[in-house]
């Protein structure tokens, strides 16, 4: 075989080998791939941050309960006064107004003497009808004094009930004008009249808080079925009871919460507080 033939044969072998080799990634393509990976990581982190948490927020009913992981918070769900994807009005309800963008901030804890030894009747008008509460200023004077003051200041007008739980714990949580579950009036106070056994009968009106026993503020919850709550940290202040409209709460709870957790999160059927009026109950 001549040298010319050997060179030709070697050239053919090289060409055949090149056909099976993947082309190298250009610098531009490599930059795009790296950027894509970085962008994907950023989006994942952003998604985790955006999911509203129940645990550790300003005013929460059960800090030891599972986090709600509400994919759509009430604040975003009703930011335009409409319904979020997956939401539907319960019978007899009207569309909720948008949550407050800039709720009132009150820095001074009201004097508990204004409620001590007295009983009050609260009338709460909502987008699903009227609820009535009887407030016990004898057993929970500080809490009731705060409730009276927030009603007077129209702090809750309007505000969505941002959380419903439907498994193990049966509550509708309200009182945050922002609808995020993290809003408070600007002051906090301690626990009063918490049951030592953690028993909260149906129709109980109690304060929501974080794991901090001094984090009571503006959020409260209604139990629509008998409920046992953790006693760690001192329990949750009972300051009254529902005397009318518990069937409304039942109706909201029956439709459960939005995905991804239908047992704990933003109600599928929204309900918002429109006004709160309180009068003293005379003997």
Automatic annotation (TrEMBL):
The name this protein carries in UniProt is Peptidyl-prolyl cis-trans isomerase
Family the entry assigns: Belongs to the cyclophilin-type PPIase family.
State the UniProt keywords alphabetically: Isomerase, Membrane, Rotamase, Transmembrane, Transmembrane helix
| Enzyme class label | isomerase
The reaction(s) annotated as catalysed by this protein in its Swiss-Prot or TrEMBL entry are: [protein]-peptidylproline (omega=180) = [protein]-peptidylproline (omega=0)
Describe the function of this protein: PPIases accelerate the folding of proteins. It catalyzes the cis-trans isomerization of proline imidic peptide bonds in oligopeptides.
One Pfam family from the record? Pro_isomerase
Per UniProt, residues of the PPIase cyclophilin-type domain are 129-278
Q: What InterPro entries does UniProt report for this protein, alphabetically?
A: Cyclophilin-like_dom_sf, Cyclophilin-type_PPIase_dom, Cyclophilin_A-like
**Leader peptide range in chain numbering:** none
Stretches of Basic and acidic residues bias are at 1-19
Q: Which GO terms describe its molecular function?
A: peptidyl-prolyl cis-trans isomerase activity
Q: What is its EC number?
A: 5.2.1.8
**Annotated TM spans:** 34-55
Q: What segment(s) does the record annotate as region Disordered?
A: 1-25
